[in-house]
Protein backbone atom coordinates (compact mmCIF):
# COMPACT_ATOMS: atom_id res chain seq x y z
CA UNK A 1 0.00 0.00 0.00
CA UNK A 2 1.35 3.44 -0.94
CA UNK A 3 1.78 5.98 1.84
CA UNK A 4 1.19 9.73 1.66
CA UNK A 5 1.70 12.63 4.04
CA UNK A 6 -0.63 15.59 3.46
CA UNK A 7 0.44 18.80 5.21
CA UNK A 8 -1.71 21.93 4.98
CA UNK A 9 -1.79 25.47 6.30
CA UNK A 10 -5.23 27.08 6.39
CA UNK A 11 -6.58 30.29 7.86
CA UNK A 12 -10.13 30.41 6.52
CA UNK A 13 -10.59 26.63 6.18
CA UNK A 14 -10.44 26.52 2.37
CA UNK A 15 -7.06 24.80 2.13
CA UNK A 16 -8.01 22.46 4.96
CA UNK A 17 -11.19 21.37 3.18
CA UNK A 18 -9.18 20.90 -0.04
CA UNK A 19 -6.70 18.71 1.87
CA UNK A 20 -9.57 16.67 3.29
CA UNK A 21 -11.00 16.00 -0.18
CA UNK A 22 -7.55 14.97 -1.44
CA UNK A 23 -7.14 12.71 1.60
CA UNK A 24 -10.53 11.07 0.97
CA UNK A 25 -9.73 10.39 -2.68
CA UNK A 26 -6.33 8.88 -1.88
CA UNK A 27 -7.89 6.66 0.78
CA UNK A 28 -10.53 5.52 -1.74
CA UNK A 29 -7.61 4.58 -4.02
CA UNK A 30 -6.15 2.41 -1.22
CA UNK A 31 -3.47 4.83 -0.07
CA UNK A 32 -2.42 4.91 3.57
CA UNK A 33 -2.63 8.64 4.36
CA UNK A 34 -1.63 10.95 7.19
CA UNK A 35 -3.38 14.33 7.15
CA UNK A 36 -1.75 17.00 9.32
CA UNK A 37 -2.09 20.69 10.00
CA UNK A 38 1.28 22.33 9.34
CA UNK A 39 1.48 23.66 12.90
CA UNK A 40 1.44 20.06 14.14
CA UNK A 41 4.16 18.88 11.73
CA UNK A 42 7.95 18.98 11.82
CA UNK A 43 9.94 19.45 8.62
CA UNK A 44 11.76 16.20 9.42
CA UNK A 45 8.50 14.34 8.75
CA UNK A 46 8.88 15.25 5.08
CA UNK A 47 11.83 12.84 4.92
CA UNK A 48 10.04 9.91 6.54
CA UNK A 49 9.06 6.79 4.63
CA UNK A 50 6.27 8.22 2.47
CA UNK A 51 5.83 7.49 -1.21
CA UNK A 52 4.41 10.98 -1.66
CA UNK A 53 4.27 14.22 0.29
CA UNK A 54 1.53 16.73 -0.49
CA UNK A 55 1.94 20.33 0.67
CA UNK A 56 -0.95 22.80 0.71
CA UNK A 57 -1.03 26.50 1.51
CA UNK A 58 -3.22 29.45 0.78
CA UNK A 59 -1.74 32.70 -0.55
CA UNK A 60 -2.16 36.12 0.99
CA UNK A 61 -0.99 39.54 -0.06
CA UNK A 62 -1.51 41.77 -3.04
CA UNK A 63 1.86 43.52 -3.31
CA UNK A 64 3.93 40.39 -2.71
CA UNK A 65 3.46 36.66 -2.23
CA UNK A 66 2.61 35.84 1.35
CA UNK A 67 2.43 32.18 2.31
CA UNK A 68 -0.26 31.30 4.83
CA UNK A 69 0.95 32.36 8.29
CA UNK A 70 1.38 28.91 9.87
CA UNK A 71 2.93 27.49 6.70
CA UNK A 72 5.40 30.38 6.37
CA UNK A 73 7.39 29.27 9.42
CA UNK A 74 7.43 25.66 8.18
CA UNK A 75 8.54 26.88 4.74
CA UNK A 76 11.54 28.67 6.26
CA UNK A 77 12.54 25.53 8.18
CA UNK A 78 12.35 23.34 5.07
CA UNK A 79 15.97 24.30 4.31
CA UNK A 80 16.96 22.04 7.22
CA UNK A 81 16.08 18.86 5.28
CA UNK A 82 16.92 17.20 1.99
CA UNK A 83 14.06 16.07 -0.21
CA UNK A 84 16.38 14.29 -2.60
CA UNK A 85 14.35 11.87 -4.68
CA UNK A 86 11.14 12.54 -2.72
CA UNK A 87 7.94 12.78 -4.79
CA UNK A 88 5.94 15.87 -3.87
CA UNK A 89 2.70 17.48 -5.01
CA UNK A 90 1.65 21.03 -4.12
CA UNK A 91 -1.83 22.54 -3.86
CA UNK A 92 -3.41 25.69 -2.55
CA UNK A 93 -6.24 28.16 -2.57
CA UNK A 94 -6.20 31.78 -3.61
CA UNK A 95 -8.05 34.53 -5.40
CA UNK A 96 -7.34 35.22 -9.06
CA UNK A 97 -8.14 38.91 -8.61
CA UNK A 98 -4.77 39.27 -6.85
CA UNK A 99 -1.56 39.76 -8.82
CA UNK A 100 0.08 36.62 -7.40
CA UNK A 101 -2.74 34.09 -7.73
CA UNK A 102 -1.74 31.09 -5.61
CA UNK A 103 1.84 32.35 -5.52
CA UNK A 104 2.49 30.30 -2.38
CA UNK A 105 1.95 27.15 -4.46
CA UNK A 106 4.64 28.33 -6.87
CA UNK A 107 7.24 29.24 -4.22
CA UNK A 108 6.65 26.01 -2.29
CA UNK A 109 7.13 24.04 -5.51
CA UNK A 110 10.35 25.93 -6.22
CA UNK A 111 11.59 25.20 -2.68
CA UNK A 112 10.82 21.50 -3.11
CA UNK A 113 12.95 21.40 -6.27
CA UNK A 114 15.77 23.38 -4.61
CA UNK A 115 15.84 20.73 -1.88
CA UNK A 116 16.09 17.89 -4.42
CA UNK A 117 12.44 16.86 -4.43
CA UNK A 118 10.58 15.92 -7.60
CA UNK A 119 7.24 17.50 -8.37
CA UNK A 120 5.16 14.46 -9.25
CA UNK A 121 2.38 16.36 -11.05
CA UNK A 122 1.44 19.92 -11.96
CA UNK A 123 0.30 21.88 -8.93
CA UNK A 124 -3.36 22.40 -8.09
CA UNK A 125 -4.53 26.01 -7.72
CA UNK A 126 -8.06 26.64 -6.48
CA UNK A 127 -9.66 30.01 -7.20
CA UNK A 128 -12.03 31.02 -4.41
CA UNK A 129 -14.31 28.57 -2.62
CA UNK A 130 -13.06 24.97 -2.95
CA UNK A 131 -16.65 23.71 -2.76
CA UNK A 132 -17.09 25.21 -6.23
CA UNK A 133 -14.05 23.25 -7.46
CA UNK A 134 -14.81 19.90 -5.82
CA UNK A 135 -14.67 17.96 -9.10
CA UNK A 136 -11.35 19.60 -10.05
CA UNK A 137 -9.87 18.69 -6.65
CA UNK A 138 -11.07 15.09 -6.94
CA UNK A 139 -9.78 14.77 -10.52
CA UNK A 140 -6.37 16.13 -9.47
CA UNK A 141 -6.17 13.79 -6.49
CA UNK A 142 -7.11 10.80 -8.68
CA UNK A 143 -4.38 11.79 -11.16
CA UNK A 144 -1.87 12.03 -8.30
CA UNK A 145 -2.88 8.61 -6.98
CA UNK A 146 -2.49 6.98 -10.39
CA UNK A 147 0.70 8.74 -11.57
CA UNK A 148 2.69 8.34 -8.38
CA UNK A 149 2.04 4.64 -7.82
| Binned strand content | 15-25%
Radius of gyration: 14 Å
* Beta strand count: 8
The span between the termini is: 9 Å
- Average pLDDT metric: 95
Structure description:
The protein has helices at residues 14-28, 69-77, 103-114, 134-148, and strands spanning 3-9, 32-37, 52-57, 59-60, 66-67, 87-94, 118-119, 124-127. The chain is an alpha/beta fold and 149 residues long. It has a single domain (3-148), classed as Rossmann fold, CATH 3.40.50. Strands 1, 2, 3, 6, 7 and 8 form a six-stranded parallel β-sheet that branches. Strands 4-5 form a two-stranded antiparallel sheet. The model has no long low-confidence stretch (mean pLDDT 95).
What would you say about this model in short?
This protein has helices at 14-28, 69-77, 103-114, 134-148; strands spanning 3-9, 32-37, 52-57, 59-60, 66-67, 87-94, 118-119, 124-127.
Key traits:
single chain; 149 residues; alpha/beta; Rossmann fold; six-stranded parallel β-sheet; two-stranded antiparallel ribbon; 4 helices
Amino acid sequence: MSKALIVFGSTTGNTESTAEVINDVLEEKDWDTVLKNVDETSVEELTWDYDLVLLGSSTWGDDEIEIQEDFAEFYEKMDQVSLSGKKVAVFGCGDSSYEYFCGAVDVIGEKVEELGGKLAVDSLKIDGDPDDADDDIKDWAEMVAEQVR
